[in-house]
Amino acid sequence: MDEILLTRALFGTTMAFHIIFATMGVALPLMILSAEILYLKTKDKDYAVMVKRWIKGFAILLAVAIPSGTIAGVQLSLLWPGYMKIIGEVVPLPFQIEIFAFFIEALFLSIYVYAADRLSSLMRIVSVSLVALGAAASAVLITNAHAFQNTPVGFRMVEGQIVDVDPWAAFFNPNFVVAASHVLVTAYMTGAFVLASVAAFKMLKAEPGSSHFIYYRKALMLGLIIGGLFSIFSAFTGHESAIHLHLYNPEKLAAAEGLFETTSHAPLKIGGWTDPERQEVKYAIEIPGLLSFLAGYSFDEVVRGLNDFPEEYWPPLFIRLLFNGMVGIGILLIMLSVIGFIWRHILKREVFPKWMLGCFVVSGPLAMLAIELGWLFACIGRQPWAIYRVLSTAEAATTAGHIAPLFVLFTGWYVVLAIITALVLYFYFKRHPLAEDIPIS
Amino acid sequence: MTDALLAITMLWIFVMIYTVAAAIDFGAGFWAMFYMKRKRNRATAMANRFLSPSWEVTNVFVVLIVVALYSFFPGATFTLGTVLLIPGSLVLLLLLVRSAFLVFAHSVEKYKALLTVTSGVTGLLIPAILVLVLPIAQGGFIEVADGLKRLDFGALLTSARTYAFSFLAVTSSLYLSALFLTDYANEAGEKEAYHIFRRNALFLGPVLMAAALSIVGAVRREAEWFYANLEANGILLILSLIFFVVGYGALFIPHGKDPSRLGRPRLAVISTAVQYLLASAAYGMAHLPYLVYPLVTLESGFTHPNTFRALFLSFIIGFLILTPGFVYFWKMFLKDTGYLKQE
Ligand code: HDD
Ligand code: HEM
Ligand code: HEM
User: Fold this and answer.
1) What transmembrane ranges does the database entry give (chain A) (predicted)?
2) How far is the CA of A241 from the centre of ligand 3 (A)?
3) Helix or strand or coil: residue B292?
4) What does the pLDDT read at residue A105?
């Protein structure tokens, strides 16, 4: 493998690892806040127990989220010095403002966790709201830098020199709001489904009708309702992202859709595999005109195909799979939460069938997979550019060498740490079972 | 003051705050490990009570410094990013282990010892490697060939400066944290822990001085330009030495309320902090105009003026908003006797 590919692999692995914990770091405060508010309103002690147990899980996950994020942040400069030189000169604002978001989160998290017994219930809600705010802000701001890579504005390049810098214009680049809202909403959705997964798994083993069964059912429904709501939002914001691709990064949309010829009345193709030789998508279900309609709300909308662009600027065509995977999971999870909601609240059933619980158990891992696919799609689909039409990935990368051993070292470390984290969660909750807080009855 | 000078001053202040906060944080991790085995000893509990809420806030400073460096001085990022790949990566890996294990040690009773030892040991290795940024930026370790810059590991590993700086970083960590924990134990009314940490500080003070002198000696032989500039800032260094003596001496003044106990820990902490401030000011000023000798200067690395203005504004607003948060945090964990005295 060449050094640039290795560099990409190393950074991609760091991000893929960080994002799992970061997503939970964004979503869990919202879930904890919801449970705090429910407890305040219903005085149902189950919700207080939920808060207590979720906080513990949150603290353990953050112990990995924070250092892995620090790695991501520092690796940006170590691995992509060419990229950070431009970022530093043109859009450092999101990174810098993010620091303040980190501080807010770190300060109030410590207060919320380690001073919990000394806080009034109002101060508890204020603290956890600030934690949630800090986490959301950090996700939004880091996505800003990513959005800038897709729609770089606020400066001009003249003979390799950066001139006419307007850092606020770069900050409010066209892709910012869309990308940030999609990232935030999908993080909330994923965290909610992960908690629903855990609850469903426990329900499979609990005695139906027992106090524990009822506790886990409350957690499940909270997860499904919040997860379902945000999965609908994520479809809307995702659709908005696709429109932005149509406007600003047309070759990425063309690769995602396997569209070679520029055309109006472009069909939407679902599933299948792009064949570059014959310039078609094999084994796909085609819906005539729908792609044009989705991209511009009119069947006459002209969607540009790959053949409009020189082949060296084509993104890798397999990104279509990543895109379809993400969208497919999104739609599946919307349906799943609707089914769960109808079963419990409209049909008023007390117990869920085993197959349905089984589906809920996989919902969290699937949502996390969609997050990974989404990032891979966004980053790989931008190739060969690190900053679209400004800086190629090759120019961005480090020339220091020695990437291969670092790749092995970091990846091995992540694997070991992932295993240890899982064990720590397992041991902790095994030593502190639910029966400690709620007697079985 | 030019914009670039303002920027480097801000950056240097962040580095200062981090140096002191991180030294205490890393050192406290070491003491938590060192006194772990002795059962009835309160020293470990003391160190842990400080560490639990504070490591996260300290960690944000790492990010703050990196971000401030590449946003104020993108021109230096390219060089530093390239040559620091290996040492930087090592620090990152150690940081990941330390932070994770620090938290895990509180969650899993069964492997507590192993987790605490690992986070204690990595906590000493991190400053030892992290500090190498300083000798590298002083020059002598970067090779330039075909326009590419590389770190010369052979030179780095055989240089006296490397070991002198690492030695200073580790002893600083231990000395500062011992002083700080003496004060913390005093605040909490923990007599036994107080004596333990005071004794450690007494032992480490002279070691710290030896480390500082070894750096001066090594720099004199290996980085003449820097040594000459240091001499020009001699007054600051002498003042710094005076504050060290005051801080160390404060450990022998009889305690206010309880004359049988020796030491004024608050005075010791404050004057030692002033000592570090002065020494770093001397160091920083001696380094100018170079960021990375002789490749990058203050002006050649500086960001676009528009960007600097936006950054400066957002720093001011950000810290204004955050200040109440820091104050609240301080009250909750560093002053509140309910927290300090808990079991
Ligand atoms: C700050 C913005 C940012 C964010 C939030 C992410 N990335 Fe990224 N990614 C980059 C910024 C970036 C980059 C630094 O700009 C890279 C390096 C070169 C490039 O073109 O993009 C990159 C490359 C890159 C590559 C190699 C690209 C390729 O093979 O074409 C992978 C696999 C990932 N990333 C994966 C991820 C994943 C899984 C992420 C989320 C979890 C993620 N990235 C978030
Ligand atoms: C290149 C991309 C990214 C970089 C460079 C990055 C950087 C960081 C850094 C430096 C930290 C540690 C902060 C600290 O010391 O407290 C962190 C933590 C975190 N990151 Fe990321 N991050 C990236 C992507 C993301 C994304 C996409 C999300 C959200 C979906 C996210 C959410 C978080 C959260 C929630 C934390 C946890 C703790 C905290 O805020 O203190 N990050 N990240
Ligand atoms: C349901 C329909 C969905 C559609 C139409 C959709 C659409 C998109 C598009 C077009 C992008 C690329 C943006 C770019 O490259 O600039 C994207 C990115 C992304 N998607 Fe989705 N998505 C959907 C569902 C989901 C789901 C369910 C998740 C995760 C739970 C998810 C997570 C992400 C992430 C993390 C990114 C990368 C960040 C970004 O570029 O905004 N998406 N999505």
Assistant:
1) 15-39, 60-83, 95-115, 122-142, 176-198, 219-238, 317-343, 355-378, 406-429
2) 7
3) strand
4) 87
Please give the mean pLDDT across all residues of chain B: 82
Nearest-angstrom CA–CA distance, B33 and B81: 33
Contact between B304 and A165 using a beta-carbon 8 Å cutoff: yes
Q: Which of B52, B71, B330 to mutate to test the interface with A (most CBs of A within 10 A)?
A: B71
Contacts 24+ apart (CB under 8 A), B187-193: B187/B334, B187/B335, B187/B337, B187/B340, B188/B46, B188/B49, B188/B337, B188/B340, B188/B341, B189/B337, B189/B340, B189/B341, B190/B42, B190/B46, B191/B261, B192/B41, B192/B42, B192/B43, B193/B41, B193/B42, B193/B43, B193/B45, B193/B46
CA distance A322 to chain B (A): 30
Structure tokens at A288: 């005539």
The pLDDT-based confidence of A263 (bands split at 50, 70, 90) is: confident
**pLDDT confidence of residue B200:** 86
Alpha carbon A154 to its chain centroid, in Å, reads 27
Instruction: Give me B149's structure tokens.
Output: 């810059």
Q: What's the pLDDT at A155?
A: 86
Cα A383 to ligand 1 centroid, rounded to whole Å: 10
- Ligand 3, atom nearest to A187 Cα: 30
In the reported structure, the alpha carbon of residue A240 is separated from the centroid of ligand 3 by a whole-number distance in angstroms of: 9
Q: What is the mean pLDDT of residues A116-138?
A: 86
CA–CA separation, A67 and A102 (whole Å): 12
Bridge-partner residues for A156, per DSSP?
Answer: A163
Convert the pLDDT of each residue in A234-258 to its tens digit: 999 999 998 988 888 888 888 888 8
Q: Which of A60, A168, A409 sits opposite B107 (nearest CB)?
A: A60
Whether the Cβ atoms of residue B263 and residue B253 lie closer than 8 Å to each other: yes
Q: Which of A98, A37, A65, A101 is nearest to B325 (CA)?
A: A101
Whether the Cβ atoms of residue A128 and residue A136 lie closer than 8 Å to each other: no
Shortest-distance ligand to the CA of residue A99: 2
Q: What's the domain range around B46?
A: 3-340
Question: What pLDDT score does A373 carry?
Answer: 95
pLDDT at B39: 54
Confidence band, pLDDT 50/70/90 cuts, at residue A20: very high
pLDDT digits (tens, 9 = 90+) for A291-318: 887 888 877 887 887 888 888 888 888 8
Q: How far is B152 from chain A (nearest CA, A)?
A: 11
Task: Determine contact, residues A191/A27, Cβ cutoff 8 Å.
Answer: yes
Regions in chain B scoring below 50 on pLDDT: 343
**H/E element, B299:** helix B298-301
Cβ distance A165 to B89 less than 8 Å, yes or no, reads no
Question: Would you list the DSSP string of B122-174?
Answer: HHHHHHHHHTTHHHHHHSSSEEEETTEEEE-HHHHHT-HHHHHHHHHHHHHHH
Of A73, A118, A402, the CB nearest to B63: A73
**Which residues of chain A have a CB within 8 Å of the CB of B334?**
none
CA atoms of A199 and A165, how far apart (whole Å): 51
Cβ of B102 within 8 Å of Cβ of A63? The answer is yes
Dihedral sign (CA B296, B297, B298, B302): negative
